[in-house]
User: Fold this.
Amino acid sequence: MADETLDASGLNCPLPILKTKKALAQMDAGKVLEVISTDAGSVKDIEAFCNQTGNKLISNAENAGKYLFTIEKV
Amino acid sequence: MPENNKMTIIATKGTYDWGYPPFILASTAVAMDKEVSIFFTFYGLNLLLKDPEKLKVTPVGNPAMPMKMPFGPKWLRNIDFGPKIPNVLWNIPFAESLVTWMMKKTIANCGVAKLVDLRSMCQEFDVKFIACQMTVDLFGYSEDDFIDGVEFGGAATYFDEASTGNHHLYM
Assistant:
Protein backbone atom coordinates (compact mmCIF):
# COMPACT_ATOMS: atom_id res chain seq x y z
CA MET A 1 0.00 0.00 0.00
CA ALA A 2 1.34 3.42 -0.96
CA ASP A 3 2.18 6.04 1.66
CA GLU A 4 1.82 8.94 -0.77
CA THR A 5 0.13 9.40 -4.15
CA LEU A 6 1.19 11.71 -6.95
CA ASP A 7 -1.32 12.31 -9.72
CA ALA A 8 0.63 13.52 -12.75
CA SER A 9 -2.27 12.93 -15.18
CA GLY A 10 -2.32 15.29 -18.14
CA LEU A 11 1.32 16.30 -17.67
CA ASN A 12 3.92 15.65 -20.31
CA CYS A 13 7.69 15.04 -20.30
CA PRO A 14 9.62 15.91 -18.17
CA LEU A 15 7.00 16.98 -15.60
CA PRO A 16 6.08 13.49 -14.31
CA ILE A 17 9.77 12.86 -13.53
CA LEU A 18 10.31 16.27 -11.94
CA LYS A 19 7.20 15.92 -9.78
CA THR A 20 8.19 12.37 -8.80
CA LYS A 21 11.59 13.67 -7.73
CA LYS A 22 9.99 16.42 -5.65
CA ALA A 23 7.50 14.03 -4.04
CA LEU A 24 10.25 11.54 -3.11
CA ALA A 25 12.34 14.35 -1.64
CA GLN A 26 9.56 14.98 0.91
CA MET A 27 9.41 11.31 1.96
CA ASP A 28 11.45 9.17 4.33
CA ALA A 29 13.45 6.18 3.12
CA GLY A 30 11.40 2.98 2.91
CA LYS A 31 8.15 4.83 2.18
CA VAL A 32 6.24 4.02 -0.99
CA LEU A 33 5.05 6.54 -3.58
CA GLU A 34 2.32 5.79 -6.07
CA VAL A 35 2.55 7.79 -9.31
CA ILE A 36 -0.32 8.08 -11.77
CA SER A 37 0.55 9.33 -15.26
CA THR A 38 -1.08 9.60 -18.67
CA ASP A 39 2.23 10.22 -20.48
CA ALA A 40 3.15 7.08 -22.44
CA GLY A 41 6.79 8.18 -22.33
CA SER A 42 6.77 7.89 -18.55
CA VAL A 43 6.73 4.06 -18.77
CA LYS A 44 10.37 3.96 -19.84
CA ASP A 45 11.27 7.22 -18.13
CA ILE A 46 10.17 6.24 -14.60
CA GLU A 47 12.13 3.00 -15.00
CA ALA A 48 15.21 4.95 -16.14
CA PHE A 49 14.76 7.43 -13.30
CA CYS A 50 14.69 4.60 -10.76
CA ASN A 51 17.74 2.95 -12.37
CA GLN A 52 19.77 6.11 -12.04
CA THR A 53 18.61 7.31 -8.64
CA GLY A 54 18.59 3.89 -6.94
CA ASN A 55 14.93 4.15 -5.91
CA LYS A 56 13.10 0.84 -6.23
CA LEU A 57 10.38 0.44 -8.86
CA ILE A 58 8.04 -2.05 -7.18
CA SER A 59 5.31 -2.19 -9.79
CA ASN A 60 4.38 -0.78 -13.14
CA ALA A 61 0.91 -1.24 -14.64
CA GLU A 62 -1.44 0.23 -17.19
CA ASN A 63 -5.15 0.63 -16.62
CA ALA A 64 -7.53 2.36 -19.05
CA GLY A 65 -4.96 4.79 -20.46
CA LYS A 66 -3.41 5.54 -17.06
CA TYR A 67 0.00 4.32 -16.03
CA LEU A 68 0.46 3.39 -12.39
CA PHE A 69 3.85 3.09 -10.74
CA THR A 70 4.81 2.29 -7.18
CA ILE A 71 8.25 3.40 -6.11
CA GLU A 72 10.00 2.70 -2.83
CA LYS A 73 12.31 5.46 -1.72
CA VAL A 74 15.79 4.32 -0.73
CA MET B 1 26.03 10.38 -5.88
CA PRO B 2 28.51 8.52 -8.11
CA GLU B 3 31.70 10.39 -8.81
CA ASN B 4 32.03 12.18 -12.11
CA ASN B 5 28.26 12.43 -12.41
CA LYS B 6 28.24 15.82 -14.01
CA MET B 7 26.67 17.24 -17.16
CA THR B 8 27.23 20.51 -18.98
CA ILE B 9 25.14 22.08 -21.73
CA ILE B 10 26.10 24.93 -24.03
CA ALA B 11 22.87 26.74 -24.97
CA THR B 12 23.26 28.90 -28.07
CA LYS B 13 19.73 29.41 -29.37
CA GLY B 14 17.23 31.95 -28.11
CA THR B 15 13.84 31.36 -29.71
CA TYR B 16 11.01 30.13 -27.48
CA ASP B 17 10.98 26.63 -28.99
CA TRP B 18 14.75 26.18 -28.71
CA GLY B 19 14.60 27.17 -25.06
CA TYR B 20 13.03 23.80 -24.28
CA PRO B 21 15.88 21.34 -24.98
CA PRO B 22 18.40 22.81 -22.51
CA PHE B 23 15.85 23.29 -19.71
CA ILE B 24 14.18 19.89 -20.20
CA LEU B 25 17.47 18.00 -20.23
CA ALA B 26 18.99 20.01 -17.38
CA SER B 27 15.98 19.65 -15.07
CA THR B 28 15.65 15.93 -15.81
CA ALA B 29 19.37 15.26 -15.34
CA VAL B 30 19.43 17.07 -12.03
CA ALA B 31 16.31 15.15 -10.94
CA MET B 32 18.33 12.00 -11.71
CA ASP B 33 21.05 13.13 -9.30
CA LYS B 34 23.45 14.63 -11.81
CA GLU B 35 25.21 17.91 -11.21
CA VAL B 36 24.34 20.24 -14.10
CA SER B 37 25.73 23.51 -15.46
CA ILE B 38 24.37 25.39 -18.46
CA PHE B 39 26.61 27.85 -20.26
CA PHE B 40 24.45 30.38 -22.15
CA THR B 41 26.19 32.07 -25.02
CA PHE B 42 25.21 34.17 -28.04
CA TYR B 43 21.43 33.96 -28.60
CA GLY B 44 21.10 31.49 -25.75
CA LEU B 45 21.43 34.48 -23.41
CA ASN B 46 17.76 35.23 -24.26
CA LEU B 47 16.83 32.26 -22.10
CA LEU B 48 18.12 34.07 -19.01
CA LEU B 49 16.13 37.26 -19.58
CA LYS B 50 13.64 38.11 -16.86
CA ASP B 51 10.60 37.10 -18.90
CA PRO B 52 11.33 34.24 -21.33
CA GLU B 53 7.62 34.07 -22.15
CA LYS B 54 8.22 37.11 -24.36
CA LEU B 55 10.46 35.06 -26.66
CA LYS B 56 9.00 34.11 -30.02
CA VAL B 57 8.95 31.12 -32.33
CA THR B 58 9.71 31.78 -35.96
CA PRO B 59 8.76 29.67 -38.97
CA VAL B 60 11.06 31.83 -41.13
CA GLY B 61 13.91 29.69 -42.41
CA ASN B 62 12.50 26.77 -40.45
CA PRO B 63 10.90 24.65 -43.20
CA ALA B 64 10.73 21.50 -41.08
CA MET B 65 8.39 23.09 -38.56
CA PRO B 66 4.99 21.37 -38.50
CA MET B 67 2.13 23.84 -38.49
CA LYS B 68 -1.06 22.37 -37.07
CA MET B 69 -4.10 24.13 -35.66
CA PRO B 70 -4.28 23.92 -31.84
CA PHE B 71 -8.09 24.05 -31.92
CA GLY B 72 -11.02 23.17 -34.16
CA PRO B 73 -12.40 19.85 -35.38
CA LYS B 74 -10.08 16.86 -35.51
CA TRP B 75 -9.83 16.75 -39.34
CA LEU B 76 -8.60 20.35 -39.30
CA ARG B 77 -6.11 19.76 -36.47
CA ASN B 78 -4.58 16.88 -38.43
CA ILE B 79 -3.61 19.01 -41.42
CA ASP B 80 0.04 20.06 -41.45
CA PHE B 81 0.06 23.51 -43.07
CA GLY B 82 3.84 23.78 -42.71
CA PRO B 83 4.84 22.36 -46.11
CA LYS B 84 1.78 23.91 -47.80
CA ILE B 85 2.53 27.56 -47.04
CA PRO B 86 5.43 29.25 -48.86
CA ASN B 87 8.06 30.20 -46.27
CA VAL B 88 8.30 33.76 -47.64
CA LEU B 89 4.75 34.45 -46.40
CA TRP B 90 5.93 34.25 -42.79
CA ASN B 91 7.78 37.52 -43.29
CA ILE B 92 4.56 39.52 -43.02
CA PRO B 93 4.05 41.57 -39.81
CA PHE B 94 2.62 39.73 -36.81
CA ALA B 95 3.24 36.28 -38.35
CA GLU B 96 5.70 35.42 -35.57
CA SER B 97 3.27 36.53 -32.88
CA LEU B 98 0.53 34.41 -34.42
CA VAL B 99 2.74 31.32 -34.73
CA THR B 100 4.06 31.82 -31.18
CA TRP B 101 0.53 32.06 -29.84
CA MET B 102 -0.42 28.86 -31.70
CA MET B 103 2.61 26.99 -30.42
CA LYS B 104 1.97 28.05 -26.82
CA LYS B 105 -1.63 26.88 -27.18
CA THR B 106 -0.38 23.51 -28.48
CA ILE B 107 2.13 23.28 -25.63
CA ALA B 108 -0.65 23.88 -23.09
CA ASN B 109 -2.95 21.37 -24.82
CA CYS B 110 -0.25 18.69 -24.57
CA GLY B 111 0.42 19.25 -20.86
CA VAL B 112 3.97 20.47 -21.56
CA ALA B 113 5.34 22.97 -19.03
CA LYS B 114 5.79 26.65 -19.86
CA LEU B 115 9.40 27.60 -20.50
CA VAL B 116 9.50 29.92 -17.48
CA ASP B 117 8.31 27.10 -15.21
CA LEU B 118 10.92 24.65 -16.47
CA ARG B 119 13.58 27.29 -15.89
CA SER B 120 12.31 27.87 -12.34
CA MET B 121 12.48 24.14 -11.67
CA CYS B 122 16.07 24.08 -12.92
CA GLN B 123 16.89 26.83 -10.43
CA GLU B 124 15.00 25.11 -7.64
CA PHE B 125 17.06 21.95 -8.29
CA ASP B 126 20.31 23.99 -8.26
CA VAL B 127 21.26 23.83 -11.93
CA LYS B 128 24.12 26.28 -12.34
CA PHE B 129 23.45 29.02 -14.93
CA ILE B 130 26.51 30.68 -16.42
CA ALA B 131 26.15 33.60 -18.86
CA CYS B 132 28.95 34.15 -21.34
CA GLN B 133 30.43 37.51 -20.34
CA MET B 134 31.80 38.21 -23.82
CA THR B 135 28.40 37.90 -25.52
CA VAL B 136 26.74 39.84 -22.68
CA ASP B 137 29.10 42.70 -23.59
CA LEU B 138 28.81 42.11 -27.33
CA PHE B 139 25.02 42.38 -27.32
CA GLY B 140 24.98 45.32 -24.90
CA TYR B 141 23.25 43.55 -22.04
CA SER B 142 23.81 44.42 -18.40
CA GLU B 143 23.60 42.02 -15.48
CA ASP B 144 20.27 43.60 -14.49
CA ASP B 145 18.66 42.30 -17.68
CA PHE B 146 18.92 38.74 -16.38
CA ILE B 147 17.27 36.77 -13.59
CA ASP B 148 18.98 36.45 -10.22
CA GLY B 149 21.35 33.57 -9.58
CA VAL B 150 23.27 33.79 -12.84
CA GLU B 151 27.07 33.60 -12.80
CA PHE B 152 29.15 35.34 -15.44
CA GLY B 153 32.24 33.87 -17.06
CA GLY B 154 33.98 33.04 -20.30
CA ALA B 155 35.16 30.06 -22.30
CA ALA B 156 37.77 29.15 -19.69
CA THR B 157 35.02 29.01 -17.05
CA TYR B 158 33.09 26.60 -19.28
CA PHE B 159 36.09 24.32 -19.69
CA ASP B 160 36.66 24.32 -15.96
CA GLU B 161 33.01 23.25 -15.49
CA ALA B 162 33.39 20.60 -18.19
CA SER B 163 36.68 19.22 -16.88
CA THR B 164 34.75 16.52 -15.04
CA GLY B 165 31.61 14.66 -16.06
CA ASN B 166 30.67 12.58 -19.01
CA HIS B 167 27.82 14.42 -20.72
CA HIS B 168 28.59 17.63 -22.53
CA LEU B 169 25.94 18.81 -24.96
CA TYR B 170 25.90 21.68 -27.43
CA MET B 171 22.50 23.04 -28.38
Remarks:
- Residues 28 and 50 of chain A are 16 Å apart (CA to CA).
- The first helix of chain A runs from residue 15 to 25.
- The beta strands of chain A are 4-8, 32-37, 56-63, 66-72.
